[in-house]
Every structure is written in C-alpha cells, then in structure tokens.
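In this section we walk through a basic example: taking a raw amino acid sequence and producing a predicted 3D structure, encoded as discrete structure tokens. The instruction is simple. Fold the sequence below.
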Amino acid sequence: MEPRQLLDVLVGLAEDAGIAVRVAKSGEGEGDPPPQSGLCRVRGRLWLVLAAGEPIEARIDAVVDVLRSHGAAGLEARFLPPAVRERLERAAAPEREGSR
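The resulting token sequence is shown next.
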C-alpha cells in the first residue's frame, strides 16, 4: 500500500472513532516555526491536526499514535487491510516489550 493510501485509510479510521482530523498549512509569517502534527482537545472533542509540511511518514505516525491511544477499542472488531493492521501492530510492539 502506498504511503498516501495508508494515510487516507488511517485518517478515515480516526474520523470513524470520533476524532476530528484537520490539516494545518505551513506557518504564514517568516520565522514562524513549522507546525507539527499532534492531538488536542477543544471543547471536549479530540482534534488531530496534521501538519501539511511534515513528511508523510511523520503524519502516518501521528495518526497511528492517536488510534492506538484513543481508537483502539473500535479497531479490534473491524476488518483492516493487512498493511494497516501491520502498521498498527508494529506501533504496539514497543509497548508490549516495555511491559515485560
């Protein structure tokens, strides 16, 4: 699966889990730091902001992190393309190793 396709599927899963996903454009002013992808809560709702200027792998990692921490319960019973499930499981592997 191409990285862009993977990102699109992951974003769809996040939205299905009730997480609003938005893309942030690069900073407007000269000298402004570039935006970074991350999760925030606004008026009780979770928002994942993806920085358009970040490499696609960084954006994929941001969505995977959010899904692992806030959408995992809804993923277990769903069919996921093998590339998506593998990416989510790979992200969980360090967590499992740390709990031994």
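Looking at the output, two observations stand out. Helices lie at 3-16, 56-70, 72-75, 82-98. Residues 25 and 31 are 15 Å apart (CA to CA). In the next section we compare this with other chains.
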